[in-house]
Amino acid sequence: MVGDGAGAVLRRALRVLEAVAEAGDGVSAKALARRLELPLPTTYRLLGTLVEEGYLVRLHAERGYGLGYRVVGLYRGMTDPIVPPAPAREVLAELHTTARAAVVLAVLRSDDVVVAHTETCAAHPGPGAVTGEPLPAHATAPGKALLAGLDGGRLADVLGLGHGPLAPLTPHTLTDRRLLDRDLLRVRSAGVAVEVEEHARGRAGLAVAVPHPGGRAALSVVVSRADFTGRRWELERAVREAAVPLARHLSAAPGVAASG
């Protein structure tokens, strides 16, 4: 069928685009063909189309290819609706300074917990995720804060239970659904989600849900495991206090996380 052929070409083109992104600027057509196990003429045709459409550029100095500038437009089209307004970002920046911790605002976008904004520095690097990047909901404090507010059906969708078991990211990750459900009960009761080395070794954090008309959001801080042990209640108090003005500012920008 023509549709099947077009679908196959589209999949190959997407694989080329992803391979260029992974390889970085200057990757050659021959290297891409070897990597993707595609005939060289096919690879050149796909590269030519992607260059013509602006998704790749031909880098003459490096004699290879790089991502094109239309990719930036795609990224902005995805992240602009979830980035919080300036007053909300000011609250996050102040929390970063006063709490001496990395700050992450996450939102529920369809069935994914996604980073909407981070405030980090060299001393407090955070989870290593950028705006628009999904977080593992079962293994992060903002993820669990958002999961705790969902009914059973939506909870299963966000956890992706139809696509296999929960992924163990560290030895402390909760991969047993019964243990996770028990943890979410504690989150609902206490109003705060906590994770200690479930997402990354040596890191810990906590989060609270931030209800607003535009969707679902969670505010979290991330610190070292050692720092968390001595400052847990101080951090919770700081996050709860910051969540109040943050909710007000998010309410004034109903487009944030509206797809949640």
Describe the structure.
With 260 residues, the chain is of the alpha+beta class. It folds into 2 domains: 2-73, Arc Repressor Mutant, subunit A (Orthogonal Bundle), CATH 1.10.10; 81-251, 2-Layer Sandwich (Beta-Lactamase), CATH 3.30.450. 47% of the residues lie in helices and 19% in strands. It has 9 helices and 8 strands. It has helices at 2-23, 29-36, 40-52, 70-79, 86-99, 141-147, 152-159, 177-190, 225-251, and strands spanning 56-59, 64-67, 102-109, 112-119, 134-135, 193-196, 203-212, 215-224. It has a 6-stranded antiparallel sheet, sandwiched between helices. A two-stranded antiparallel sheet has the order 1-2. Strand 6 and strand 7 (203-212) form a beta hairpin. Helix 2 (29-36) crosses helix 3 and helix 5 packs antiparallel against helix 9 (225-251). It is elongated, with a radius of gyration of 21 Å. The mean pLDDT is 91.
What is this structure's SSE topology?
Blueprint: H1 2-23, H2 29-36, H3 40-52, E1 56-59, E2 64-67, H4 70-79, H5 86-99, E3 102-109, E4 112-119, E5 134-135, H6 141-147, H7 152-159, H8 177-190, E6 193-196, E7 203-212, E8 215-224, H9 225-251
Antiparallel strand pairs: 1-2, 3-4, 3-8, 4-5, 6-7, 7-8
